[in-house]
Batch of 2 targets.
Target 1
Amino acid sequence: MRVLTYAEAVREALRQALADDERVFLLGEDIGVYGGAFGVTEGLLTEFGPERVRDTPISEAAITGCAIGAAVTGMRPVLEIQFMDFITLAMEQLVLQAAKIRYMFGGTARVPMVLRTPAGSGTGAAAQHSESLEAWFAHVPGLKVVAPSSSADAKGLLLASIRDDNPVIFVEHKLLYRTRGEVPEAPVPIPLGVAEVKRAGDDVTVIATSVMVPRALAAAERLAADGVAVEVIDPRTLRPLDAETLVASARKTGRVVVVYEAVKTLGIGAEIAARIAESEAFYHLRAPIVRLGGQEVPIPYNRRLEAAAVPQEDDIVEAVRQVMAA
Amino acid sequence: MRVLTYAEAVREALRQALADDERVFLLGEDIGVYGGAFGVTEGLLTEFGPERVRDTPISEAAITGCAIGAAVTGMRPVLEIQFMDFITLAMEQLVLQAAKIRYMFGGTARVPMVLRTPAGSGTGAAAQHSESLEAWFAHVPGLKVVAPSSSADAKGLLLASIRDDNPVIFVEHKLLYRTRGEVPEAPVPIPLGVAEVKRAGDDVTVIATSVMVPRALAAAERLAADGVAVEVIDPRTLRPLDAETLVASARKTGRVVVVYEAVKTLGIGAEIAARIAESEAFYHLRAPIVRLGGQEVPIPYNRRLEAAAVPQEDDIVEAVRQVMAA
Amino acid sequence: MRVASPDLEQLVGMLRTMLLIRAFEEKADELFALGRIHGTMHLSLGQEAVAVGVCAALRADDYILSTHRGHGHCLAKGADPRLMMAEFLGKETGYCRGRGGSMHIADVRGGNLGANGIVAGGLPIATGVGLSIQMRRTGQVCVAFFGDGAANEGAFHEALNLAAIWMLPVVFVCENNQYAMSMPVRRAMRVERVSDRATAYGMPGATVDGMDVVAVHEAATSAVGRARAGGGPTLLECVTYRYRGHSKSDRQRYRGRDEVEAWRARDPIARLRARLTADGALTEAEADALAAEASAAIEDALRFAEAQPEPDPATLLQDVYA
Amino acid sequence: MRVASPDLEQLVGMLRTMLLIRAFEEKADELFALGRIHGTMHLSLGQEAVAVGVCAALRADDYILSTHRGHGHCLAKGADPRLMMAEFLGKETGYCRGRGGSMHIADVRGGNLGANGIVAGGLPIATGVGLSIQMRRTGQVCVAFFGDGAANEGAFHEALNLAAIWMLPVVFVCENNQYAMSMPVRRAMRVERVSDRATAYGMPGATVDGMDVVAVHEAATSAVGRARAGGGPTLLECVTYRYRGHSKSDRQRYRGRDEVEAWRARDPIARLRARLTADGALTEAEADALAAEASAAIEDALRFAEAQPEPDPATLLQDVYA
Ligand SMILES: Cc1ncc(C[n+]2csc(CCOP(=O)(O)OP(=O)(O)O)c2C)c(N)n1
Ligand SMILES: Cc1ncc(C[n+]2csc(CCOP(=O)(O)OP(=O)(O)O)c2C)c(N)n1
Ligand SMILES: [Mg+2]
Ligand SMILES: [Mg+2]
């Protein structure tokens, strides 16, 4: 099968969605001739023209509202927010409007829109360009939250998100953009709300999201050499969360490590740990549920501090060893 | 001791802080002659004048930034956001600026400000005026989050918040404003970051926040009649969270119910459950950790639906019975 | 663009709708006083000419986005008072199945994309409706109502700019009723008129007497016509007044009775009625009959609403997702 | 308010600071190209006259709030290039202990309340600085820098309005460098000048040639004087140009070389130098010496910075809270 970078996979999903459905259009800051801050929309302006690949002024609240209004009246907008941090400027539109319109209006409207945004640290962009805020959105009924960790997932989940009739926050990770993987050419959506076992194993369950998935897989490989069989699961969709798959694995292995980049307190790992702790799997746990999340700091600029602020492969290996020893 | 309503207790703390420290001032929409949407600042304009009790236009982002700029340059502003929902308009200023300025600037600045805001449902104000968003802020390093459940706590914690050198989100609950309790007259702060055991008991730990504390206490009273000794703990500060007190109680009783009004998924109860599940208390748990949070819906208008959307006293009794039976 | 004045039939229609709004609001007030309404509400008594003058300039398939003070807009856009009243009472058969209530009544089919509990919250959405119209090439127009207080929100600025640069078919209608809750407009901005802000976006702005339904209608017709013809957005300010407090908690300490009385003397309904009776278009008896009709329609709506079922709590989780 | 033109000594000082900024930016560019800088950065090459002309109008105890393109503002406000360079290299002894980097350099003691990674993010904060000055009655002034792109953010609108109604001592300085990343200003707004928006707030607005440090300085002096005297805020637009791409990822497909060359021909440093040498205030040799001094200062700063220690990862959690 063809190998694409994660960025190319996102672009291919956008291209196919634009080609398939004339209601789909893109809007965002510098997505046209510039190709987006990370080059994801490169070339789409030429292919689809400025009406459907629409550059906007720097007005995050209004462009989010613009997507909402277009969605409510029959379009299927795909909005890019240049860095996830800037979503803080659009919270009212996203959370009080997009997420609630359908419910408040008694089911008489729907808001089929996707908000794509690059998240995460590791690029030296410091505290205001490195946020991982997905847990906020996963707290909000009416939104869906998707966070692909591979090229194939990026494409398939984005296609599904665009076809979904609800507002979807689609979280791309900057460090994943250049990672490569096999991706089917056909526009095949991957259903939202379904976790994937990325590697099977019986000793310990590692639940990882986004950029932590490749790190967890690398850690699992190293641990396998020590005879520890790690099961790595990627929830892929954070809301709705496929708790069933996670709980089943926890029940099987009795040991759980949850790995995520966002600040540990109230990051997605809090919910995952709580779901397992309240489930039937509780009775099968052999050790406390370990969470490996980001440190309780804004992301610092200095490269070494930045790396120390979020879980790295070594930290995962270490955490798994600890939970095996418990 | 004197009995004050929760609203009166908040007002007394504001009055004493204004009188004690000329750097303290209030700003917000309609806090002057109107006295605030819930009457909390009633009378303060007359007492302290329009410079220190400052009405603002409807510009949540700018007035939040205004508090930040004043705080950084030597003042101690206390900002009122009329409903917690509207904080969605100020997320960038709060989270990317107020919370990060000190860290980003290498410790050379500080942001001593308090943002007071009424939260919660139960008043028939529907989806855009009933939010409980405290978990978002508890996810953010650099912020502190306080949520008093009684008149005494409201006064003491607000005084401590105003004296704190960091940005504090102070969450008041609309349904608590008219509740009454004893409050010392002297301006005695209650330290942030310290949970309180509101009722001692050995059978089961109920950890409740804000308006759920009186509900949990009422439920505990009913359960006592059945011979179940419930320990009710109020964390009071949600960031930093006094996990030690919670874990110690969980260890003692082996049974935990966490009760909160916010949407269950990724509400503060997720973090509390995760903290306990990752702690030493894990080995002493006799049942899965039960979370009783808000339903996964925007708050509906209809009174019966609205009541059904968040935990009520009966639900707490029921949950405790279940966890005792597990 | 000069527009023709409304003909007599239209004027009588406008009077009828203004009367309907007034009757609805008075009934709402009464129900609230009786403790029969949960929550809060914001009455538009005194502002009827704005809702009616503007909506009379619209086609049935045009859109509006309304505000927290939205009962009038909703009725003026053609909503059924029965379904509105049912929503107001939180009933299952109301416009929003009782989930929305006063602050969120929407009549999506009728082109009312909803009241909004967030000040200025509808303005960004309006740009998207406008863009969708432009891309779908349907020739519709979108009206976004907002208050004077909303003009100080960032959303106002961003939305007007977006509409201007893309020449979107949106008419921004400011109901300047002198106050945002307790804040007088002159303390909240240093410009005389909200419409003075139009120049900052390179769009036309106008201020009209919002107590004169004919003036509102003419200005709206012109702005709507321009939008429909591809001429882009307009900022239309209608100077008006709310007779009652902001909401039920308001003791109105920020204004005097004289001021209220002075505005009441310019009542838009009395004014149109006087004009039509003076012109001989209506007799006093006919005019009284119109008012009685409106009251009857609202009484009917209330009876209907009262007879409707409450939502079943078992349906709580429905319609969160499509 | 008419203000006196700067005297020769001031002009030479301004030339010196512009040269220092240019040398800093060129070194920054070089370090980045060598892969010695982590992250991104935004160079102000071409815009030196704005930072320098404005900051020369300030007192040492006045405040500025800067932007993502903030190296020039920082130096112009009097920061030590050594500590700036150390921050740029992420060193423990940099202005922000290596936590901030290019996008967050702050010199709080020197009155620079920080660069800002958020477009328009400093504008609301500036109103609070202004309010604090007003309440503390210190006679200080706050300058808030922002770009043309920032003028379309809601924060711009809310902040200018707040400053206007409260007559805050804030000068809003727009560096209109023709683009916000790839977005030309004429596609992002339908007004000719950003300063045309001042009228929406009832505040004075002015547009000056941002390639002429003398013009900038005069306009800034007047605005700062008004602010200090209690006359309230001003919106001052300086028309300028950035010579380099927006940041390092920019292939500049949105503009042609000719355009860049045309602006370079108006270089603010060359212009002031030419004026001073033509006036006989400086000889060519003296002017060359100033440039050499600036380069030397930056070389010295770099040497200093290189010798500084990296932060210890064990200190990661320090300074989150006071
Ligand atoms: C973002 C936001 N801030 C504050 C409020 C609370 N609030 C509701 S209406 C209102 C006044 C609005 O004034 P205006 O826009 O003039 O409309 P009016 O009420 O006069 O019709 C306020 C402050 C709100 N609903 N939303
Ligand atoms: C709120 C926000 N949106 C988008 C960005 C990404 N971004 C950084 S600078 C920039 C362009 C800013 O343009 P302008 O204000 O004109 O300043 P200039 O870069 O031209 O100096 C953009 C879009 C950001 N940092 N913050
Ligand atoms: Mg008003
Ligand atoms: Mg620019």
Note: The radius of gyration of chain B is 19 Å.
Target 2
Amino acid sequence: MTGRELHWRVDGQDVAVRIEESSAGGIFHIGKEIIPFSFISKHRHGGTVLVKGNPHQFYVVQDRDSHTVWLNGQTYRLERTGKGRALPATGHNGADGSITALMPGRILRIDVAEGDAVAEKQTLATMESMKMETSLLAPRPGRVASIHCTPGQVVDMGQLLIVIED
Amino acid sequence: MTGRELHWRVDGQDVAVRIEESSAGGIFHIGKEIIPFSFISKHRHGGTVLVKGNPHQFYVVQDRDSHTVWLNGQTYRLERTGKGRALPATGHNGADGSITALMPGRILRIDVAEGDAVAEKQTLATMESMKMETSLLAPRPGRVASIHCTPGQVVDMGQLLIVIED
Amino acid sequence: MIRKVLIANRGEIAVRIAHILREMGISAIGVFTDPDREALHRRSMDEAHRIESYLDAEELVRVARESGANAIHPGYGFLSESTSLSSACENAGITFIGPQTETIRLMGDKLEARRLMQAAGVPVLPAWASNPPESEYPVLVKAVGGGGGKGMRLVQNPSELAEAMAAASREAAKGFNDARVFIEKYARNPRHVEFQVVGDSHGNVMHVFERECSIQRRHQKIIEETPSPALTPELRATMGTMAVAAAKAVAYRGAGTVEFILDADGRFYFLEMNTRLQVEHPVTEFTTGLDLVREQVRIAEGQPLSFRQADLHQTGHSIECRIYAEVPEENFRPDTGTIEVFRPPTGPGIRLDSGVEEGSTVTIDYDPLMAKLIVWAPTRGAAIDRMKRSLRDFVLLGVRNNIEFLGRVVSSKDFASGNLDTHFLDRNSELFRPPAGPLPIEAILAASLSASPVTNGGSSSFSNVWTSGPWRNS
Amino acid sequence: MIRKVLIANRGEIAVRIAHILREMGISAIGVFTDPDREALHRRSMDEAHRIESYLDAEELVRVARESGANAIHPGYGFLSESTSLSSACENAGITFIGPQTETIRLMGDKLEARRLMQAAGVPVLPAWASNPPESEYPVLVKAVGGGGGKGMRLVQNPSELAEAMAAASREAAKGFNDARVFIEKYARNPRHVEFQVVGDSHGNVMHVFERECSIQRRHQKIIEETPSPALTPELRATMGTMAVAAAKAVAYRGAGTVEFILDADGRFYFLEMNTRLQVEHPVTEFTTGLDLVREQVRIAEGQPLSFRQADLHQTGHSIECRIYAEVPEENFRPDTGTIEVFRPPTGPGIRLDSGVEEGSTVTIDYDPLMAKLIVWAPTRGAAIDRMKRSLRDFVLLGVRNNIEFLGRVVSSKDFASGNLDTHFLDRNSELFRPPAGPLPIEAILAASLSASPVTNGGSSSFSNVWTSGPWRNS
């Protein structure tokens, strides 16, 4: 899981986005939207990404800061503006402390209770998805404010699971 | 210029080859043959190589030691046997001390005379080829045994230019 | 009106159906199983849904209903000739793009089909329930519910019959849930010549000429062409009339194929009827200008055929080669892997129907058919030359395949002379050997250029070879 | 017998000619200049030789002689309509695959051509050497030796004439070494309809129907089709007869094109004759089954045409789109670069003639035509739908191109209605604007996935994005 912040020039305006990504998918933050995505396929020049249940086939070529995106038969050109920077590894979550499911899957265990104090990177819960076990880690130290899932529950991608507060 | 020795299993027999290669071409040693080649084009999976005046379009995919070569509409499968090893940078030449022209071109200068002692990597001559100046360096310390070219001469790829002896 | 079609299939045929549906302004709904998660056919659809199996009629109908599809196209293979999907569609009020369930049932029962054909005056091979006269040997034991060579036994003399029937019956029971077998006269070295037929729901049935499918391996076709080099105009007319009679006997609706075997003396016999689109349908399309999938959709909508028999003409010659992920030189064993390079040929008279592209992965889960290369030219000779050129230009690496083998077949004298029968490959065993001669030095050079300096035990990218800087001598 | 042909051209047409030569068993000898060192056409030949220029007839003939070629195919453009190559071939005893030098000369002189056509009864536009009657304005000043819009001036009223003629004359002198100009009636919003003709050395001349080429930018065609939506069978027959009369007037040998302009009232006028293969020849091939390059070779060998006029039929509809490395939205400025992704569409009724492949580099040295996408379908409507689908599926990245612009053109109402003329793009200026609406969030996501973490000022590979390990949460 790696995180990045990027800036694009879109219709003359700066758009800041944040992307948290693993090889199977991730979460895309744009404006106030939090958009989970997963990969159907990947290749050298792009792939197919599943967003809100719809697959989007894309190719991207990059020439310095200029990115040309072919998406579903249309081509778009985006200019990268600010410098991107690699962020430290985080959980599946935004900076607001909400832990969401990166992929559809089943909750195997919940290792904390509401009110528990947790350390950064402490395992909060474990889920199974695509035949892989995944630990959901605390993105920062804090206290478990609320738990929104139960063991055995099948959860959708992007579904809120746990909230951590300071 | 990098050099490599490789071993292939061909028709049940071991074949040792040596290849000296730059981005524009090189020399291929197989058995007693010394075969200069140059690249017409290169891409991720192969390219077109000019050998003895004939272009050969090829693609190669590699799966562990097994190499599948598509060449001019035929596919060949070769097994790599011995471990290959990267050789230290050398001149355009084999281990025998003979300096040959890697590309067709024109001799600009000859910086040594027969009988001169030379240090490793000392410039022996300079040639121009494809609008680039290229220095021919001594592959190892030694003495200039013979010079087979003159300034201004146009030389063929693979033509013997200078011989160094210990 | 059909507005949204679920394509209950995968691979090249699912892609091909999606292409024409999208051109017709009809939404194409795909399905995919876990092994096909990254398959090209999934990405060729307007939308696609995950399923457990391409063989579960109830699941397919459920997905169709949930996605709002009002028709299902079965493609070929899978459930295309099973009554389970057509009847599930009927029950759910979804249009099945194919013939009526009853037609599928009748033609799926080889004995029933034989009886119908005999009644319609279509020639069939002599057959017996048991103990044929000794003079009729060799004979073939066949499964009543069978197909694709399963449950079939060649019997040379009467003493072997009982055991062969028992074995075939066991195989048939396992394979088709129907242990019944029967005995048919064995035709030596026949040609396999089939006729495309189309029928609408208004009683119009016509044929769209023949396809010669004699080049087979393990009872599976690998090269098909039309026109057949064996048919005279008279024989074509006679066989076409019989094909129409066969289809009319079951009031055939949709696109189907009447398969015949044709012996060296020009006698032909009904073999079976395929109640679906055929893998080799493109050669018919290339020579007649019809789009058979478009016709299937129109017929399923209840529209009458927009042409008459006299409007149909064969123009030029078309050949199809099936590109399989298999090694012909090693008894056609299938191969798997990732397609690292995919450069199909270009130019006039070439059609590619492909289920793969560069980067696609071929797994063991399904049929090894990756793509079909189809060519057209004004004459058979020019079509062969075009196929030879196209196969030579086709670069497909990463998965072993039969492209060069196909090239040797179409370059052979026997193929050029049109001397085809179902034992073509047995007779031409030299085609299984790559051309003799030493490995070209340039191939060793190419491999050497790609070889990573030190074997690291894993697969390695070629690109690292090209990382050296501009040409310098130091 | 032609056994070895030097193809004096580059790009898609050189590749296309090489394909059919190789299929005919004829060796294809290529030529390439330094900028084309890595070009696809070089690698599509049996052998290829470096030359200084595609415009040096003596050099081309020398290379042909040295390589043992006994014929030269000029393709289109370059020396195809210059007498220098055809006469150099004559002197060297090499077969020029094209018409006689005298035919090229006559048709290259627009005044001479007009005189010949008038004598043959082919309608031409009114023309004057100077000072046309005031009632005939607007008029066009044209170069006698010109072509491609050079040396051409539109004159609205008599007061502007003298200056326009002087300017056109200077341009013509520079461009064609021939300062002569003349004045022709200006046809408003005409269609551009041309007829393919073929003639052999035995006096047989026939036409192979029309091509509608009205969609143009800067006097260059970008979309062509056949049949023309403007022609009735009667008008087609009349124009075809006139095209044959035009070709017979110069005893035309080989494949050529008689260009007409057609006004809204169905009146047509001879515009010029192209004495060579045309860029848009594939639409004729797709609808008639002829291979025009094969015919050119046969005619050059002295063989009589193997068909009669009555044997030729138009079947279905074909459309060609020219894929240019240019930005229509920025006044069609050419773009250059390396083609990083090249995934052409597949399926029935699609032909790709390409001079590039993945990895090819497009430079500023030559015409920006990269490839031609040609489709066939039974009707014009189905062909448009197929072209729309094919353009949408065509992925070409790394060099900016007109694929989406072409998609908007063929999707427009005006195109669907067949309402075409040479001012089509002027009338439909909204086609130059990409569809309105916000950038899809998915496009920003895709770009973000490909973006390297830190801008390093150079171009960066996409692959580094995928280097993260299996999905883990830490």
Note: The first strand of chain D starts at residue 4 and ends at 7.
